[in-house]
Amino acid sequence: MTTTASGRPRIILDCDPGVDDAMAMIAAARWADLVAITTVAGNVPLKHTTANACRLRELLDLDVEVHAGADQPLIGLQGFARHVHGETGLGDVALPEPKRGPDSDRAVEFLVEATRAEEGLHLVPVGPLTNVALALRADPGLANRVASLTLMGGSAQGVGNVTAAAEFNVWADPEAADEVFRSGAPLTMLGLNLTHQVRMGQVHADECRALDTPVAEAMAGLLEFYAVFHLAAEEVADGPIHDPCAVLAVTHPDLFQMEDRPVHVELSGTQTRGMTLVDERGPQADTPTNCRVAYSVASGAVIDLIMQAVREA
Ligand code: RIB
Ligand code: CA
């Protein structure tokens, strides 16, 4: 595993900002050595996810490249999550227009080149897996060069959010997810079964507002927007903080309990397309384990790390 002198794991964050993607950037800026950001269409169209990544890069005063990637799934119709993340992806948080735009529209090529230039990087996708699948098509050896491919997506125990069976990141591009899960890469899956255990809301937003800094103000707005949606959708005021879990599973792995499992992506089920089918029997003769699946987490410690990242940004 590649770490810097500070001992922080070096990560590339592939994301679709996105309210919780923004929180993942805040966490990565504090706890990881964030090498670069690649963007993909997902919660909102690519132009917005990319602009948001550039806005957040400036909010966090990060000197990292942002490379835009795929603007649609490998095949099939495209679906967004504007109802969750707002029309342009960051709720109603208005960040200044970025002075610096994306460094390229070649995220796929960047992922191949960056992992060739430096073995042992952690690739942390927290959006649809289109960029990652295309990079693996371009260079299957990427699977053997990364220290981990730690993704927020899917779910164990049949939990879905877009449908009864499918989680958004996998639902948005099931073919890409299938290629990633069959790639032989060192996969770790932080699915909904895990991320629903990490919930934040108005109490944390109030704590952020009291800090009176630009990052804390943005975090408060993101949390409040997210809480309104989840209160309406789930009648629970605290929202699940999905994407930071993938970052913190790399930087603080001891906070997560994982099991090795065979995981398959369903592509053709009329009710289950986009489902990550986790074989709880464990490895079988014809289906070896291909993924570490997260089942439980020290959620209080994870939330504390997220809040510390906000405080220290
Ligand atoms: O299902 C949750 C995932 O979908 C998160 O990554 C969120 O940002 C959305 O992309
Ligand atoms: Ca996301």
Short description:
The protein is of the alpha/beta class and 313 residues long.
Radius of gyration: 18 Å
**How many distinct folded domains?**
1
CATH topology: Inosine-uridine Nucleoside N-ribohydrolase, Chain A
Number of helices: 13
Silhouette: globular
Main sheet overview: 8 strands, mixed
Distance between the termini: 25 Å
User: Helix coverage percent of residues?
Assistant: 40-55%
Would you tell me the structural class of the helices and strands?
alpha/beta
Give the cofactors and ligands: alpha-D-ribofuranose, calcium ion
- What CATH architecture label applies? Alpha-Beta Complex
For the secondary structure, the number of strands is: 12
Layout of secondary structure:
Elements: E1 10-15, H1 19-31, E2 33-39, H2 46-59, E3 65-68, H3 82-85, H4 107-117, E4 122-125, H5 130-138, H6 142-145, E5 148-152, H7 168-172, H8 174-181, E6 187-190, H9 192-195, E7 199-200, H10 202-211, H11 214-234, E8 239-240, H12 243-251, E9 256-261, E10 263-265, E11 276-278, E12 291-297, H13 299-312
Parallel strand pairs: 1-2, 1-4, 2-3, 4-5, 5-6, 6-12
Antiparallel strand pairs: 7-8, 9-12, 10-11
Helix pairs in contact: 1-11, 1-12, 1-13, 4-5, 5-8, 10-11
Bound molecules: alpha-D-ribofuranose and calcium ion.
